[in-house]
Amino acid sequence: MDFLIFKAPMLMIQASLDGILLGILFALIAYGMALQWGVMNIINIAQGDLVILGGYIAYTIYLWGIHPAWGVIISPIIMFFVGWVLYKLVINKVVDRDLFISILATFGIAIVFQQLMNFIFGADVVVAQSEYGTTMLFDNSVTLPNSKIFSAFISVLYAIALVIYMRKSKLGRAIRATAQNARAAKILGVDTEKVYAATFGINAALCGIAGALISITLTLHPYVGLPYTVRSFMIVIVAGLGNLPAVAVSGMGLGLFEEFADYILGTEFRIGAVFLLLVLILVYRRFKLSKKREYLK
Amino acid sequence: MEKVKQKDLILYSGLIILGLAAPYLFSAFKVQLTYLCVLIVLAMTWNLQGGEMGYNTFGNILFYGLGMYLTASVQVGMFFPLAEWTESGGEKTFVHTTAQYFQGIGVGLLVSAIVPAVIAGAIGYAILGLRGHYFAICTLGLGIAAGEIAGGIEIIGAGQGFTTPPFPAEIVDTEARGKFFYFLSFALLIGTFVFVKYIYGSRFRLILNAIRDNEDKAEAMGIQTMKYKIVGWMCSAFFCGLAGGIMGGLIGYIDSTDVAFDGREMGVFMVLMAILGGKGTLWGPVIGATLFHFFKEGLWTLILGWQYVALGVLIVVIVVYFPEGLMGWLREKYPERFGEVIDDKDRKAQVELK
After folding, report:
1. Among A116, A154, A226, B224, which lies 20 to 30 A Cα-Cα from A30?
2. How many domains is chain B partitioned into structurally?
3. Over the stretch B182-223, which tens digit does the pLDDT of each residue have?
């Protein structure tokens, strides 16, 4: 335990800015999670591994000598097709089934992804250098990597683009109709199978963007996918499905929590704190609902 | 009726004799056999949760890892300062005598059975109020959080791991260590089987099934579901803790995320084994665990490096295509063998409905 952070205001500003910028990134992943959960009623444990795969795509083009920032355009395009194929292979068989089946099946997918990434990209921690430099604030006492600002900006941009797409486009309306009532949508001529595939593809594309941003702001490693899954799951259960502003706010909240936990508890407990927070949130909601004799659904 | 019982008697005594003779027959595979016993115990206790109660948990690994750490800590802590042991990597500075070793592991196993059960009881009220997938994710988080946190605690070795006391050097017989752990795990297996079989014949199982099938209705019928859920979880925790304690001693080295709170392997294995054999049956987890273990040991070495890919694919295939497991499949094929009487008219009506 180290409470130095509360004595030094500069440290606090540093942690807060880091947390908020990171949180915007988490919110983007959580948005994808909420999308597939709401539309297809599945919980995708492989979400985090899709993110990491997206990151490795950006890292690969970085190794080829292209600036990794292009990853935010290339990675989602590739990931969309990865998501589509994944849907056709496995996910379409678990859509109408019990949620636990989808959890276990995607858990299996997550293991396969982790291992394949381990084979292809190696088990080292890697990072793509964006060389964007850093911004110094408050007499150089707060350092802010420009890549983080860039990643938050891109996340917001994509989120807005997606919201507009969902509102205006034909596919977007079909997705929203399917989310409301799949059967009615089917009767009215929506090809739900295609909608599901597209939804999963869009989710994977979002993961691809987030991954590309992570490759330049944080680090990549084949086995760090699960924390991203849990983070997005946590954000979704706090914010609720289909509530985008709440997703953004709770994403930032989570980012703040993590940065502060990092300073106070020490880096070795960071991931532990995230998972513990998940348990605490669920237990809190459970007690809150049990007062009304209800339970989380 | 009497005849069936006699058949059972032959089956059970045959299995026990086989189990007792196994370390002598397959002398080279004692470690694998010990693993098998532990895997069966884990699958059976998971089945109590996931199969009978309908609470699919990823969190039993919590009790398994806890048992592992507790047994080793007690075994060391009873005689030597624990902090110095883990700091120096253990065995170099302090040596257990034979008596100390066995006393230590005995007390350690006792603690590792009771403490996880008590913890399960303590957190049960908070966690078991969650239902369905929320429970699954929550317990997943619990298991991983435990691993991450254990990896940061200095006194149990933190990231560098915890070496459990080596088997006493005074015992010259080289086979003794393998036999000791095998018979320990075999005793645990028999204990667990007898216990689970007892539960299968009791009202408790019916209550658990009622909770699985419709918890709200069960509650409306006057069953205090929470009480039974907690007791069910405590039973699982009790045996998982013991299994973990034995495994810790067998492996000889405890790492927080790779051995103890190994959600990526053991935590998934127990779910997979129970589902492979058939959830909600007495023999399903036993058969599932045995099959899985043979498959694993047989294929792991052939596909070295690709074993996790194979594991992932296996999970997907089993879960998507055989969610009822082997016993469920047999049951559908030969319902008469399971004591189910099916009316032909009823069956036809069902087919027409489909």
Report:
1. A116
2. 1
3. 888 999 999 999 999 898 888 998 998 898 888 888 888 888
What's the pLDDT at B328? 80
B56-82 pLDDT, tens digit each: 888 888 899 889 888 888 888 887 777
Q: Is A116 on the interface with B (CB under 8 A)?
A: yes
Amino acid at B284: G
Residue of B nearest to A43 (CA): B133
Q: Which of residues 152-191 of B touch A (CB under 8 A)?
A: 152, 158-159
Q: Domain map of chain A by residue range?
A: 27-242
Task: Please report the DSSP string for B136-191 in residue order.
Answer: HHHHHHHHHHHHHHHTT-GGGTGGG-EEPPPPPTT---TTHHHHHHHHHHHHHHHH
Is residue B340 assigned to a domain?
Answer: no
* A90–B315 C-beta distance less than 8 A: no
List the domain range (segments joined by +) for residue B173. 32-323
Query: Is the residue at B337 inside a domain?
Result: no
pLDDT tens by residue, B18-60: 888 877 887 778 888 888 899 999 999 998 888 888 888 888 8
Share the mean pLDDT of chain B: 83
pLDDT of residue B339: 66
Could A283 and B127 be called an inter-chain contact, meaning their C-beta atoms sit closer than 8 Å? Answer: yes
Residue B90 reports pLDDT greater than 60: no
What is d(CA A156, CA A292) in angstroms, rounded to the nearest whole number? 37
Residue A114 contacts B where some CB pair is shorter than 8 Å = yes
Chain B residues touching A282 at Cβ < 8 A: 130, 134, 137-138, 141
Name the phi and psi angles at A271, rounded to 5.
Answer: -65, -40
pLDDT higher than threshold 50 for residue B1 = no
- Supply the pLDDT for residue A78: 92
The residue whose two tokens read 């590739």 is A78
Is the Cβ pair A290, B129 closer than 8 Å? yes
Bridging pattern class, strands B253-254 and B162-163: antiparallel
Instruction: pLDDT band for B140, please (50, 70, 90 cuts).
Output: confident
Give one DSSP letter per residue of B210-261, joined into a string: HHHH-HHHHHHTT--HHHHHHHHHHHHHHHHHHHHHHHHHHH-EE-IIIIIT
pLDDT in tens, A64-95: 888 888 888 889 999 999 999 999 988 888 88
The C-alpha atoms of residue B261 and residue B59 are separated, in whole angstroms, by: 9
Residue B134's pLDDT is 85
On whether the CB atoms of residues B124 and B135 are closer than 8 A, the answer is no
For residue B140, the chain A residues in CB contact (below 8 A) are: 230
> Is the confidence at residue A2, as pLDDT, over 70?
no
Binary contact (A105, B268; C-beta < 8 A): no
Residue B8 domain-assigned?
A: no
Cβ neighbourhood burial of A186 (10 Å; 0-12, 13-18, 19+): middle
- Structural domain includes residue B346: no
Q: Least CA distance to A271: which residue of chain B? A: B148
* Distance from the A233 Cα atom to the nearest Cα atom in chain B, whole angstroms: 9
